[in-house]
Design goal:
4 helices; five-stranded antiparallel β-sheet; alpha+beta; about 190 residues; globular; 2 domains
Length: about 190
């Protein structure tokens, strides 16, 4: 299959599959979380467990597996200390990082791989506002990122062209690439 055909297939498929996950999986769980989180925060037992991403770091998690799987955060826990110090609480943390654990779910999420293909003018857009863009895909998962000096967007799965390199730096993304619908300011 030619590279041109891959690009023509990736963009519309990426939009359709991303919208399906956002509307059929994420949105219903987010709405349920907005309603259920106040009760879970008040009544669900909380335990200290090891972060699935930051090994060696203890985080707060719901003892009830279903609540943790759907509404918890296996990376940073229910309430990171830095969020408390900035005036946040468990509910506002959920609203900031809703349904965070979807990135650990098979099918809904993917992992970085040398099979990632991409087009664009940069191999990875830095977080400092350096202008650039890319469209990256891996099978059914497609992600797009664009930014100028003051703002940017990331939509689709959080794939990056750097994932195609076998020696790419390992970070939190190697535990699962969820979807993104972000507008960023620099």
């Amino acid at each position: 299959m030619s590279s041109r055909w891959n690009i023509l297939w990736a963009a519309p498929w990426g939009l359709a599959s991303w919208l399906a996950v956002e509307l059929l999986v994420f949105l219903p769980l987010f709405i349920a979380g907005l309603i259920l989180m106040p009760a879970l925060i008040r009544f669900a037992p909380v335990v200290q467990v090891e972060s699935r991403v930051n090994l060696g770091q203890q985080i707060e998690a719901f003892r009830w597996r279903w609540a943790q799987t759907l509404f918890g955060n296996w990376e940073d826990g229910l309430l990171p200390q830095w969020w408390v110090e900035s005036g946040g609480n468990r509910y506002s943390w959920f609203v900031r990082n809703p349904i965070c654990n979807l990135r650990f779910w098979p099918i809904v999420s993917t992992l970085p791989s040398p099979s990632v293909r991409w087009v664009g003018n940069v191999a990875a857009v830095p977080a400092d506002g350096t202008p650039g863009w890319f469209l990256a895909w891996q099978g059914i998962y497609v992600g797009f990122r664009w930014q100028c000096a003051s703002w940017g967007i990331w939509a689709g799965w959080k794939l990056s062209p750097r994932d195609s390199q076998p020696d790419a730096p390992r970070d939190y993304r190697y535990f699962g690439l969820g979807t993104a619908c972000q507008i960023m300011r620099f």
